[in-house]
Design brief:
Strands 1-5-8-9 form a 4-stranded antiparallel β-sheet. A 3-stranded antiparallel β-sheet has the order 4-7-6. It has a two-stranded antiparallel ribbon with strand order 2-3. The two termini are about 20 Å apart. The chain is an alpha+beta fold. It is built from 4 helices and 9 strands, in the order βαββαβαβαββββ.
Length: about 120
């Protein structure tokens, strides 16, 4: 099953350059601070990105993740209430490059709508 994470392009590239797994939970917060990495299902992505990254001037990308590969590696993915009954996948560990099936450029259009 495909799940998605919106990332700053630079954070993702820095993790790849360093050889470390990606450990940013969400804008401005680390995995260590939050305890998990926020992810979304495809139908949730735009609303989440518009809430979290509105006004963000950094280059964004969407990490397309294979939930089956993540779980097979022993990393828990827990579907939890993110508020108002919306269920979101939370990744309880860092994102290893092998979990990522694609990296897609993303950003906002002139009307402030998230596009990827």
């Amino acid at each position: 099953m495909e799940i998605l994470h919106v990332a700053h392009q630079e954070d993702w590239e820095a993790a790849l350059r360093s050889g470390d797994a990606y450990q940013v939970s969400t804008r401005g917060a680390s995995l260590d601070e939050v305890g998990f990495i926020h992810a979304s299902y495809p139908h949730q992505l735009a609303a989440v990105a518009e809430f979290v990254h509105a006004g963000d001037e950094a280059d964004l990308c969407v990490l397309v993740l294979d939930m089956d590969v993540i779980q097979a590696a022993g990393t828990r993915v827990v579907v939890e209430d993110g508020g108002r009954g919306q269920l979101y996948p939370h990744i309880y560990g860092p994102i290893e490059p092998r979990f990522v099936t694609a990296v897609r450029p993303a950003g906002f259009d002139e009307a402030g709508r998230f596009r990827w």
